[in-house]
Amino acid sequence: MTPADIRQKLHRQIDQLPSDFLVLAVEFLEFLTSRQSKRADASAPLSPFETEAGEPVLTGSTGSDLLQFAGTWQGDDFEECLEAAYETRSPAEF
Q1: Distance (Å, rounded) from C-alpha 90 to C-alpha 69?
Q2: For a Cys-Cys bond, which of 21, 45, 88, 93 suits 17, CB 3.0-4.6 Å?
Q3: What is the distance between the alpha carbons of residues 27 and 6, in angstroms, rounded to a whole number?
Q4: Quick one: DSSP state of residue 8?
Q5: Is 93 domain-assigned?
Q6: 83 within a domain of the structure (yes/no)
Q7: What does the alpha-carbon distance between residue 47 and residue 54 come to, in Å, rounded to a whole number?
Q8: Does the model's pTM come out above 0.90?
Q9: Residues 64, 17: Cα–Cα separation, whole Å
Q10: What is the DSSP secondary structure assignment for residue 29, as one 8-state letter?
Q11: Within its chain, how far is the Cα of 16 from the centroid?
Q12: What Cα–Cα distance (Å) separates residue 26 from each residue in 5, 17, 22, 44?
């Protein structure tokens, strides 16, 4: 399929989308564009959650694996988020 064919197919599908899905489609396209531009910019700092290849950091499930992220909370809503986690958590089933 050529790029022109793909564009035509996208236009046809966009024309059929309900307006609330259009918003989601635009947000997704903006995400893809920003992600592509971040990868193109070699000087952009990597997220602490990504490797050099841009893949997510995959580690074991021990608490010591999470220590590398200790103290990296950004924002002023930590207490709010912690409270929400306590309110919405459920018992683990094994």
Answers
A1: 24
A2: 21
A3: 19
A4: H
A5: no
A6: yes
A7: 9
A8: no
A9: 46
A10: H
A11: 27
A12: 20, 12, 6, 24
At position 81, the amino acid (one-letter code) is C
- Tokens for 10, please give them: 């996208």
- Plot region of 75 (φ>0 → left; ψ -120 to 50 → alpha; else → beta): left
Domain with 44, as residue range(s), is 3-88
Instruction: Read off the pLDDT of residues 30-78 as tens digits, 9 standing for 90 and up.
Output: 888 887 776 666 555 556 556 555 565 565 567 777 777 777 777 788 8
DSSP per-residue letters across 47-79: PTTB-TTSPBP---SSHHHHGGGTT---SS-HH
Q: Which residues sit opposite 58 in a β-bridge?
A: none
Per-residue pLDDT tens digits for 37-50: 766 665 555 565 56
Q: Say how far apart CA 8 and CA 4 lie, in whole Å.
A: 6
Domain count for the chain, please give it: 1
Examine residue 94 and state whether it is found in any structural domain, yes or no.
no
